[in-house]
C-alpha cells in the first residue's frame, strides 16, 4: 500500500459535508485499505468559520474555497455546497488545477453537466456524482456501469423524499396537502421554503441526470416537463383508491417505442397499489429501471439525509482515488446516442379526468363525443349525481398528451361541463 | 475511438452464452461507443459443436477451449460454462495468457474465489463476476464500489429464484412442497435434478460471495450454514400466516454486534408480511443491504434467465474492456479485514417452534422451564388442544442458535413432548 496520502479538499461542511468528514476520520483505516493509499482531509472550505465543527481540525478550515482548489496538490475535491455558483466555478477551477471531483450537486449537474464533463475530460480527471440522485441508493453507477451492455428503455422513480412523505401522509391519513406539508416541515422533512421539492424542481433535475445517463443523450433541465404536487387533493386520493391506485410524484424517463427519441417528465400520477413503487413509504426513494435484457430492476433506499448522502459521496471518493492511483479515469459523459428529446405533447400514457357536469340527459354522450373527436379512447366512465350537479370520472386508454390537452380544452367549452376538477396521469401498468 | 477491436473469447454457449453472443452482435455499435473500441467475438468454445447456434459464425466455434484461451491475443474471456472444472483451469490459463475474465460461475467463485483473484492480480488482470449473484441485479458492483466508503452490517436476501417460486406457490395456493416443485419443473423454473436449488447449495454459494465482498473477509462455501427448504410444509405456512409472516429461503450475512466476527447462513425463515422481501413474488430475487451510513437499501430484479444474466455479463465486459484500454484494473479481492467467520451456534435470532405435546396440566410449565434453563426467553406461547393431544407454538425472543439447539434437545427428552413438529427462524424484524 502506498503510504503517501491522497489529498482531499471538502467544499461545504453542512449536513452532508460534516458526515463526509466524520466518516473519513472514523473509517480512515478501512478507506486506506480499500483505496490502496491513505486519504487525508487537507482543507475544508466553509462560509461561516466560527461555527464549531466537531471532530474537524480548526486549522483545516478556510473561507477561501478558491485558494483551496487552486493549491495544486489536491487529488480530489468533494463539492457539497449545492446550487450553481460558486460550485460551478470551483469545480472548473479544481479540474484546471489537476483535481478530480466528487459532487452531490443535482441542480448543477442537471444544468451544466455536459460542460463540466468536458472540462474534466480535457484535464484527464474524473467527475463522479452518485449522491446527486436518490441519496444513498446506487443508481448512477448501476446505470452507467452495470447496465452498460444493456439497452435501458424506461426509468420510473420516486426521487424526492419530501414529496413522498407528504403524499404518503395524505394517503394514509386523508390529510390535505397543506396539513401534510406542515407536518413534513415540523419533522424536518421539508425546508422552510419547500418550493424546490413541492414544485418538483428537485425531481426534475434528477430526471434530467437519469435520462442523460440511461439514454446516452444530453437531457437538459429545460427538456424535462415539470408539474408540482401542490394541487393534489384529498379528493384525488379518494379517486385513486376507487381505482385501486395511490398517487406518487414520479420522475419518468422513456425511450419512444420506435427508439428514435426520448422524453423526461416529472408530475404526480396514479399508480396501481400492486406496483412496488406504491408501497414506498415516508421519505424513502425507489427507482424502477426497465431494460431490454435485464428486464425490470428496482433500487430502493433513503433518498436524502446527511449520512446516506455521505455514503454515496464516499463510495465515489474511493472509486476516484483508485482511478487516481491507477493513473486512469472512470467512464466520462456518454452522450453519443444524441437522441432528440421530444416535448410533453408526444408522451403517451393513460389519464384520469374528473369533470363537474350538469346532471341532465345527453351530457355523457356530449363528453364522449369530444374524446372521440380527439382520438382519445375511453376505458371507463363513472357518473355520480349530487344536488342537480354530477361528476363524471373518465379513465382513458393510452393517448398522447397533446390529444388529451386538446380534449380537455374542448371539454371546457361545453356548456354542460361546469369545470375540470382534476386531470391525472395513470402510470406503472 | 480506437478502431482495432478488443478480442473476446466465449466459453460456453448455452442459455446465457448464446444471449451474450446475440447482444454482442446486435448491440455492437453501442458497445463500441460505450467502451471506446469495438469488441470482436473471436472464438466460442462449446462441447457439442454440431448444435446449430443461430447468429454465430460457425467458423468461430471450437471444442478446444484450452487452445482458445491460450491464443495469447484474447483480451477478455467470458466464462459461462459453470461448475468447477474445466472452468477453473480455463480461467487460470486465461490469466496466464494475458486475458481478463468475466464469469457467471457462483460455485467456482464461492469455492476458489481467493485463488482466482490471486492469479488475476499476479498477471495484472481483472476478474469480474456480477452475474454470479442474483442474475441481472447489480449487487456485486454496488457492494464493492458504491458502498466502498461505508460499513456494511447485514445482507439479507432472496437469491434463488427457483425456491422463491416454489415457496410463493405454496404460500399463495396452499400447495405442498412436492406439488409446488412439480409445477416449477413443468414451467422450467426448476431443473430435472433440483438439488442445488432446493437444498440451498446455490444460495449458499451466493451467500459466501456476498459475505466476502460485504465484510472484506474471505468467506468460503464451507463457512456458510446451509439448510434446504424441502421440509417446509403447508402447516408451516399456516403458522407463518397466524404470525403475520410468510416463509422465504433467505441468505443472511451478518456482522456480529461487536463487529469482531461475521456469519453467513442460508435457510428457510419466517419474515413479516410488512417486510419488503415478503412481497417478492415468483422467480424474482431481492437483496436488502444494511450499512452504517446508507441505512437500508434494497435491490430487486430477475435473478436468473438467459437475457438478464447476459445483461450482467455484458456490464462487466464493458467495464473490463474500459480498464483494458486504460491500462488499469478495477478493484480486486478485498479481504484485508480478515474477520473470523463464526459457526452457526453463535448466530442470534428469534425462533418459532411447534411442539406436539400431551394434553394435560403442567406441560406448559415443564416446557417453559426447559427454555428458561437454556437461557432462551419466550415471547409468546399458543396452546391448541385436539383429541387428547395438544400443540404448543412457542415464539422466542432473540437467542443464540446453540442455546436453541440445547433447548430443543432437552425438550425432546421430556415425556410430555411427543415430537418437535417444526423449528423455524424468524428474521427481518
TrEMBL record, chains A, B:
GO terms for biological process: methionine biosynthetic process; threonine biosynthetic process. L-homoserine binds at residue 191. CDD domains: ACT_HSDH-Hom. Its EC number is 1.1.1.3. NADP(+) binds at residues 11-18. NADPH binds at residue 106. It comes from the Bacteria. The keyword Oxidoreductase applies. Residues 352-425 form the ACT domain. The active site is at residue 206. Pathway: Amino-acid biosynthesis; L-threonine biosynthesis; L-threonine from L-aspartate: step 3/5; Amino-acid biosynthesis; L-methionine biosynthesis via de novo pathway; L-homoserine from L-aspartate: step 3/3. GO terms for molecular function: homoserine dehydrogenase activity; metal ion binding; NADP binding. Gene3D superfamilies: 3.30.70.260, Dihydrodipicolinate Reductase, domain 2 (3.30.360.10), NAD(P)-binding Rossmann-like Domain (3.40.50.720). It catalyses: L-homoserine + NAD(+) = L-aspartate 4-semialdehyde + NADH + H(+); L-homoserine + NADP(+) = L-aspartate 4-semialdehyde + NADPH + H(+). Its cofactor is a metal cation. Keywords: Amino-acid biosynthesis, Metal-binding, Methionine biosynthesis, NAD, NADP, Oxidoreductase, Sodium, Threonine biosynthesis. Signal peptide: none annotated. Belongs to the homoserine dehydrogenase family. Catalyzes the conversion of L-aspartate-beta-semialdehyde (L-Asa) to L-homoserine (L-Hse), the third step in the biosynthesis of threonine and methionine from aspartate. This is Homoserine dehydrogenase.
Amino acid at each position: 500500500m502506498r503510504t503517501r496520502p491522497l489529498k482531499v479538499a471538502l467544499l461545504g461542511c453542512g449536513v452532508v459535508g460534516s458526515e463526509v468528514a466524520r466518516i473519513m476520520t472514523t473509517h480512515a483505516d478501512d478507506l486506506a485499505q480499500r483505496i490502496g493509499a491513505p486519504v487525508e482531509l487537507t482543507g475544508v472550505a466553509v462560509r461561516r468559520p466560527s461555527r464549531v465543527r466537531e471532530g474537524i481540525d480548526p486549522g483545516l478550515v478556510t473561507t477561501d474555497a478558491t485558494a483551496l482548489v487552486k493549491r495544486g496538490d489536491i487529488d480530489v475535491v468533494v463539492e457539497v455546497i449545492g446550487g450553481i455558483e460558486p460550485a460551478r466555478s470551483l469545480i472548473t477551477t479544481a479540474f484546471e488545477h489537476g483535481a478530480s471531483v466528487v459532487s452531490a450537486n443535482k441542480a448543477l449537474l442537471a444544468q451544466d453537466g455536459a460542460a463540466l464533463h468536458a472540462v474534466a475530460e480535457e484535464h484527464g480527471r474524473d467527475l463522479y456524482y452518485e449522491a446527486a440522485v436518490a441519496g444513498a441508493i446506487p443508481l448512477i453507477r448501476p446505470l452507467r456501469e452495470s447496465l452498460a451492455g444493456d439497452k435501458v428503455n424506461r426509468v420510473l422513480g420516486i426521487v424526492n423524499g419530501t414529496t413522498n412523505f407528504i403524499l404518503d401522509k395524505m394517503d394514509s391519513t386523508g390529510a390535505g396537502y397543506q396539513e401534510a406539508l406542515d407536518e413534513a416541515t415540523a419533522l424536518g422533512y421539508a425546508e422552510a421554503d419547500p418550493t424546490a421539492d413541492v414544485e418538483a424542481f428537485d425531481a426534475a433535475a434528477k430526471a434530467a441526470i437519469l435520462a442523460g445517463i440511461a439514454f446516452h443523450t444530453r437531457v437538459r433541465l429545460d427538456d424535462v416537463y415539470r408539474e408540482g404536487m401542490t394541487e393534489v387533493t384529498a379528493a384525488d386520493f379518494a379517486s385513486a383508491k376507487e381505482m385501486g391506485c395511490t398517487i406518487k410524484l414520479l420522475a419518468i424517463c422513456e425511450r419512444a417505442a420506435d427508439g428514435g427519441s426520448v422524453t423526461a417528465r416529472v408530475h404526480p400520477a396514479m399508480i396501481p397499489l400492486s406496483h412496488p413503487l406504491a408501497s414506498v413509504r415516508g421519505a424513502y426513494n425507489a427507482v424502477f429501471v426497465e431494460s431490454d435484457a435485464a428486464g425490470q430492476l428496482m433500487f430502493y433506499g433513503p433518498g436524502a439525509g446527511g449520512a446516506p448522502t455521505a455514503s454515496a459521496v464516499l463510495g465515489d471518493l474511493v472509486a476516484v482515488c483508485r482511478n487516481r492511483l491507477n493513473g486512469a479515469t472512470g467512464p466520462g459523459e456518454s452522450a453519443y446516442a444524441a437522441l432528440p428529446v421530444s416535448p410533453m405533447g408526444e408522451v403517451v400514457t393513460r389519464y384520469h379526468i374528473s369533470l363537474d357536469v350538469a346532471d341532465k340527459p345527453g351530457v355523457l354522450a356530449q363528453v364522449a363525443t369530444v374524446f372521440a373527436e380527439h382520438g382519445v379512447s375511453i376505458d371507463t366512465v363513472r357518473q355520480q349525481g349530487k344536488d342537480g350537479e354530477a361528476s363524471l370520472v373518465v379513465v382513458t386508454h393510452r393517448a398522447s398528451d397533446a390529444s388529451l390537452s386538446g380534449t380537455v380544452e374542448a371539454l371546457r367549452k361545453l356548456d354542460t361541463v361546469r369545470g375540470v376538477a382534476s386531470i391525472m396521469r395513470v402510470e406503472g401498468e
